[in-house]
Amino acid sequence: MVNLQKYKAKWLQNLEKAGVFAPAFELCEIIQHAAGIDRAHQLAGDAVLTDKQIDAVEELLALRCKGTPLQYILGKWEFYGLDFFVGEGVLIPRADTETLVELGLKLMKNVPAPHIADLCSGSGCVAIALAKSLPLSQVAAVELSDAAYGYLTRNIKLNEAHNVKSLQLDVLAQSSPSILTKKNTAKFDLIISNPPYIRTSDLKELQREVQKEPVMALDGTADGLHFYREITRLYKNCLKKGGWLAYEVGDDQSTDVQNILEQNGFANITVQNDLGGFERVVAGRRK
């Protein structure tokens, strides 16, 4: 048995050399996950490790230093107060996306039992967060990727989100809107989406950790706006009159997405900033 402090400084240095943004926080998370030592005992300074625990921590640190996202290493991540399984092949839930959930809840505040569709659902974090906050809602979570769809279905079970139905569909297929509406048996009060919106030319400039996430969930084609144009065009008639279409958008895309909504006949355009002050969510109401 060896005192944790003997290794901690070296491990922290390794993460710093690897360019990890918050090395102390990440080391704490990795030690807790690999060795089962919680933050309080780590800070107390009297925690000890077995050889097996040391090997387990160092194995995960090696992955992290090579750029594997912390969330993939841990296998779970928190979003909107809920836990979600994550791993290779699914987009990692981010705090910025909670802004999309918050606006969705605000828009549905006076709808007694809303019908909601979450397009490009990924892990299901948006769909499940809405469903848990709106227990009388019916939420359809639509995802194409086999890997992501597996996480989506697991996360529905994990969070006991009984009012979420998963559908494996290509949201850009011409037939998908009618399939979705038939499956739901009604038009929607809210269609919400965090679609791929990174310009193809910008993908290679992303952080190395983000480059480990699925390109399918990131690539918004040449101008980053393809999914906004197509989803708006294809799904506007899936909304009830007065229903809302809400998107997460990139840092410089708010104006373009507002224009897309206006060109498709949406009114009451609403913009919501994230905690960093960026215009992160754009929504419009069907006339």
Question: How do the helices and strands line up, and which of them pair or pack?
Answer:
Layout lengths: L1 E2 L1 H13 L5 H13 L3 H6 L3 E2 L1 H15 L4 H5 L1 E4 L2 E4 L12 H10 L7 E5 L5 H9 L4 E6 L2 H13 L5 E5 L7 H9 L3 E6 L32 H10 L3 E10 L5 H10 L2 E8 L5 E8 L1
Parallel strand pairs: 5-6, 5-8, 6-7, 8-9
Antiparallel strand pairs: 1-2, 3-4, 9-11, 10-11
Helix pairs in contact: 1-4, 2-4, 6-7
Account of the 3D structure:
- The protein is α/β, with parallel strands linked by helices.
- The chain folds into two domains: 2-66; 80-286, Rossmann fold, CATH 3.40.50.150.
- Helix content is 39%, strand content 21%.
- The protein has eleven helices and eleven strands.
- The protein has helices at residues 5-17, 23-35, 39-44, 51-65, 70-74, 98-107, 125-133, 146-158, 176-184, 226-235, 254-263, and strands at 2-3, 48-49, 76-79, 82-85, 115-119, 138-143, 164-168, 188-193, 239-248, 266-273, 279-286.
- It has a seven-stranded mixed sheet, with helices on both faces. Strands 1-2 form a two-stranded antiparallel sheet.
- Helix 2 (23-35) crosses helix 4 and helix 6 (98-107) packs parallel to helix 7 (125-133).
- The longest helix is centred in the first third of the chain and has 15 residues, at 51-65.
- The protein is elongated.
- It starts with a strand and ends with a strand.
